[in-house]
Here is the input.
Amino acid sequence: MIEFSGNTDTSQPKVVIIGGGFGGVELAKRLADAPVQVILLDKHNYHTFQPLLYQIATSGLDSASIISPFRKIFENQKNFWFRLTEVLSIDTEHKHVKTKIGSLNYDYLVIATGAETNYFGDQQMAQNAIAIKSIDDALTLRNTILCNLENALQAKDEEQLNTLMDFVIVGGGPTGVELAGALSELRKHVFPKDYRELNIKQMDINLVQSGNQLLKGMSEGASRKALEYLQRYGVKVWLNSRVKSYDGRTAILASGEEIKTHTLIWSAGVTGAPIPGLRPESMLPGNRIKVDEYNRVAGYENVFAIGDVAAMTSEAYPYGHPQVAQPAIQQGNLLAKNLRRLIHNESLMPFNYHDKGSMATIGRNHAVADLKVFKKNYSTQGFFAWLIWMFIHLISIISFRNRLIVLLNWIVSYFSYDKGVRLILGKKKDHAGFSND
Here is the structure.
């Protein structure tokens, strides 16, 4: 069994949380003064502020500015323990969790494992594309972009040059739109100075969206404005298009058209990341766990799921809540209250999602925002939306230190038109015929 040192009151219920994303961290924080032992398990020792991963990938921020160590976040919480490990399975009959460092009993189990990239069964795509769901992904993408331009200086012919300098982004959601906008800023302000020997105007940015609009789920006005901004920045947007295959050099669209590219960025979908051990009837399509209005996993009394991996279906949300930060945070908050109520044999409170809106930034001074304030809908685009986007993201970062670092980086970048973290460190995506070593 996993051992814990210190003042551990074994008579208190043990709440085991698997996953330190937005939901898991919020739940653990809200249980700070509860009469329970809070044990967080995660294969990383830090929380990642995922909405800003694209800025790591495009050299706008250093990776340390959007991650916070769990032990630092909870350093003053006396009933909190953390173990760095990967969870292998759960045994709900005997109420224990099996990990790579041993087993752990629980009284209440919370699965907050989030989501992972969904390639929809396309193994070739999974092998050759670059996702952007983690710090490692973002650093791999940054390294690949920079290595491509370094290799372009040694290109043997025009085709090889274009393959290295052209980029394809699959998926027109917030991540895809924000990446396209950030790449266009690099092309305009940074790369012409860094790579004077290259004609950076030859760098093509392609955004491929299977539907007929960008930012599905946002207002038609926001979608239309995002398209307008991207086209103004020189991004080629392919609507009603789908990438059929990608071998590392050529992206073939369903229409038969081909785009030569060394770098295809996949932001077209996610799937839940459940833990083996639950009954099949507890699972829904998309690898999401079926939960009731209390986030209790279907068929269990003391097992819960929150965030992206959980699907609480209703008439308003037939496929579950959006797989973004706010539902996870709100579910973590309410579940903390309900666990206290369970301990005191009180009735549980149902979850009611308060949709605060959606937003996306499309480069410098341009963003779109659909906000809900006092149950009224407000839409705004342009500079004001960009300021709102920056403010919301800044206050949502967990640590004050990271907020300050991000703010200073943004200020310097805004006035200098520069991206300061153009470093090739660690892994990059290599394909046949090109070596980055």
Q: What stands out?
A: The chain has two domains: 14-43+85-117+270-343, 123-268+365-416. The chain has a mean pLDDT of 94.
